[in-house]
Amino acid sequence: MKENSDRLKIGDKFFNSRLMLGTGKYKTINDAFGSIQNSECEIVTVAIRRLPTDLKNDTTNFLNNLDWEKLWLLPNTAGSQTAEEAIRMAFLGHELACQIGQEDNFFVKLEVISDPKYLLPDPIGTLKAAEFLVKKGFTVLPYINSDPMLALHLEDLGCATVMPLGSPIGSGQGLNSLANIQIIIENSNIPVIIDAGIGAPSEATAAMELGADGILLNSAVAQSKNPSKMAKAMNLGVQAGRLAYLAGRMEKKYYATASSPLNQISKLL
Length: 269
Description:
The protein is α/β, with parallel strands linked by helices. It is built from nine helices and ten strands. It has a five-stranded parallel β-sheet with strand order 5-4-3-10-9. Strands 6-7-8 form a three-stranded parallel β-sheet. Strands 1-2 form a two-stranded antiparallel ribbon. α1 runs parallel beside α8 (227-247). The protein is globular and about 70 Å long. The N and C termini lie far apart (45 Å).
């Protein structure tokens, strides 16, 4: 993707793409490669628990075949049920980033999920882990429920973004918490990344039209019939939504207005 002036800033890093992609649930490695390429994403998130401790020497892991000069690794703490587990995973994530040559990468997608059925993030555990990791110099991107007050607390702690869910992770239900997401966007002074629940490009577009700063998704691409094509569609949807937000939509009216006013018509006659 060509560089543009409307770049996404997270911490001290700038990105041209506002779409972030997960690496799980793909049927084949080729699906994963094709999706990452067609999405034109620059941030790839990977569950730390699924990675070997010696990633650099594991030639079978597809992450070693990605171009890490063009991509930025976002380790995530998925599977952590407590703040302590998430903190430990975050440090492991930095070690793994170092193994691919990103020694300055202290990014972490913070997930603390103690609920095994609905997989909803634990707000107390997330706050606790975020506070500790921010103090240790991490660039923290916390995954949260669409809770406007929690988002403000995390911003006050020094988190680099907030990442509210659109609907439960992997559900593909779309933007079920639209009102709360809009409040979070209006009140936030840091990027708001919609994470989880997006199922179709139109939903990604709708989130971006509201003013979201980016979209992170996985299942919607990986579990589609053609992941590479869906990744491209999601990329275009995010771009369209961002452009629409910057352009500003017309005001809604309760009555019809002629698209070609009479005075304009008369001038043409």
